[in-house]
Structures are given as C-alpha cells and as structure tokens.
Amino acid sequence: MPIPATSALCSIFTLLIAGSPIFYSPTPRGFCSNCCQIKERDDVKFMLYTRKNPFKAQNLYLSDDKRLRKSNFNFNHPLVIYLHGFSESATSERQSSQEIKDAFLKNGTYNVILIDWSPLTAVPWYTNSVDNLPIAARYMARFIRFLVQKGFPVKDIHLIGFSLGAEVAGFIGQQLQEWSILLPRITGLDPALPLFEDGSPNRRLGPNDALFVDIIHTDGGILGNPEAMGHVDFYPNGGHALQPGCARQEIANNRWLGILSCSHQRAWEYFIESVHYPMAFPANRCEPSKLFGTCRDGGNGKAFMGMGADKRLRGKFFLDTKGESPYGRSNPLGSIGL
Questions:
Q1: pTM of the complete model
Q2: Which tops the pLDDT comparison, 175 or 6?
Q3: 19-51, pLDDT tens digit by residue?
Q4: Is residue 163 among the annotated active site residues?
Q5: Fewer Cβ neighbours under 10 Å: the N or C end of the chain?
Q6: What is the pLDDT of residues 304-320, one digit of tens each?
Q7: DSSP characters for 97-119?
Q8: How far apart, in Å, do the first and last CA atoms of the chain sit?
Q9: Catalytic: which of 25, 92, 163, 263?
C-alpha cells in the first residue's frame, strides 16, 4: 500500500553536490508498495511569470478559472512552457528553469510557465521518475487543454524540455493529440538517454509529437540521447561530451563531479543564448552517418540552432561553439552573463 503523501518519508530535501542544488527524497513517488502517493496538484505546479511579475511566480491550477483571470496571464502574448530535468526544481537559481524564464522575459512580452515537478524527479529515484512520466504528462496536458479551452490560441504555445523534461514534452504532445490539439513546436534540450534507449517513438520525444520538433544534442551517449529524434537535430561540437570548456570550467571551480553534467547542461545554456540572439549558432547540414559528428565544417549560416531555427528545416545539422559565454560563433553581443 502506498505511503501517505503527508509522511515525513515523502519530504523533499535540498542537497548541494558539485556546487549545485540537488533535490532528494528518502522515498520514491508512484504506485509501488513502498512509494509515496502521487498528489498531482501538489507534485506538479504551474508557475506563471510575466514582465509584470518576473521574479515572483503566480501559481495557476487546472480548471481554476478564477485564479487564471486574476493572474497576469495575457491571452494576447505568446506562451512558453518549460519542463526541467531530473533532480532539478523550477525555483532554484542558476538552474535551467529560472535561467530560461529570465531570457524570455528579457527579450519579449511572453507568458512563461515553469512546470515544477521536482517531487516526481527527486534523486535517487530515476526509474520511478520514468515510470511516472505518463501520469505526470497527462496532468500537464490537461492543464494545456484547459488554457486552450479558455481561448488561448494553440499556435502561440512553445513547449520546451530539458533532459527528462524533454521526454515528458513528447508524452504531452502525444496526449494532446488524442484530444485533437496539435502543438506547433516542441524543443528538446538533450533529451534523456537512460531507459529511453529502445527508440520506440511512442515512449520518447519524436517528430510526430508537434508540428515542429527541434532537438539540441550535447551529451550524446551518456546522459543525453544521440539519436535523431526531431524534424531537425543539432549536434554542437559533435553532440557529445566533453563540450568545449566543460572540464576547464568545472576544475577551475573545484567542481569535479560537475564534469559529468556540464555537457548535458550546455544544451539549455546554448538555447538561452539563442533566445538573446537567434542567429548566434549558424549550422551546416550533416548527412546521416553511423559516427555522428563527422562532418566538421564549422557553421556558415545555412541554418540556426535554437530559438531561431527555421520550422521548415529537416535533418541533422552540425556546428562548433566556443568554450565560454558567449558560446555562439556569430554572437555579436559579447557575454550575456550565462
């Protein structure tokens, strides 16, 4: 029988590992005999940020019309929905969610909703997190359907996920299509590899999950999936570890364990830079090859990785980056403080 969610065993604790916060739970969530009960309303939070409230989130809830109307949600502004990865939280500074949110609000009048599902992605329960993906994704999809039913135009939704969050995005896209809602764009930032190796398109993010699916691979074969998964797949620096600057950066900050995650995190760091400057990462087409990362001809502007990706693009593309911010070789802005 599942453990009641109110038990102390179901608490979430923050640990600092390699200088970064990691979210830990002594007991997994799920439906096993020793699992904590999943409470969707508590375990999955929809946190709205706009230029009117860039730092303090307004929590939205499924089917709560009154809360939606009283919030700063603007039906005339585009919507970005972001899903963090395993062991992350949507509220932690210097992690992907807050950095993504800040980038969008600095560059446009967006509604940004960060989905905090950290109770379902706490370490060390990765297998349980994967098992719970369909449940979490259905609840998230119901929330998106709620916004659409209230009149928000589907064409203005951009769903973005990092690592395990990218895989959830695929499940969300699949679920929404069962309700005749097709998302215009899903961006996968180094989608997770562990337990997604079988390649079944209905068990991971794939090109059928939205009108346009673009992928950035940075840690292929380790934490990230190296396989082409979208309409267009970008492989900066070959798409695998170590990404330029990772070892030097982590050793300099005495974060040896950070070397393991640095290349994985580069996916969202590159994407953030592309939000600030959509043409920062020009790329060239890579023809299919058993050895990914073999057509090393730099980048001459035939395509752009990240926010500026052309929705007509198809295939694999390759590019080189620099080892420190600004990473893009065509970024004229100088450092943007990543």
A1: 0.92
A2: 175
A3: 678 899 999 999 888 899 999 999 999 999 999
A4: yes
A5: N
A6: 999 999 999 999 999 99
A7: HHHHHHHHHHHS--EEEEEE-GG
A8: 46
A9: 163
- The one catalytic residue in 264, 276, 320, 325 is 264
**What is the C-alpha to C-alpha distance for residues 186 and 167, in angstroms, rounded to an integer?**
10
DSSP assigned state of 229: -
Distance (Å, whole) CA 70 – CA 192: 36
Domains of the chain (ranges; CATH) run: 40-319 (3.40.50.1820)
Neighbours of 142 (CB within 10 A): 16
Among residues 185, 86, 90, 91, which one has the least CA distance to residue 131? Answer: 86
For this structure, is 240 an active site residue? Answer: no
Q: 102, 131, 190, 320: which is the annotated catalytic residue? A: 190
Which residues 6+ apart lie within 8 Å of 297 measured at CB? 284, 318
Q: Which pairs count as long-range contacts for 54-60, CB under 8 Å and 24+ apart, including other chains?
A: 54/101, 54/102, 54/105, 57/91, 57/114, 60/113, 60/143
- Both tokens of 18, joined, read 């390699």
Rg of the chain taking only CA atoms, in angstroms: 19
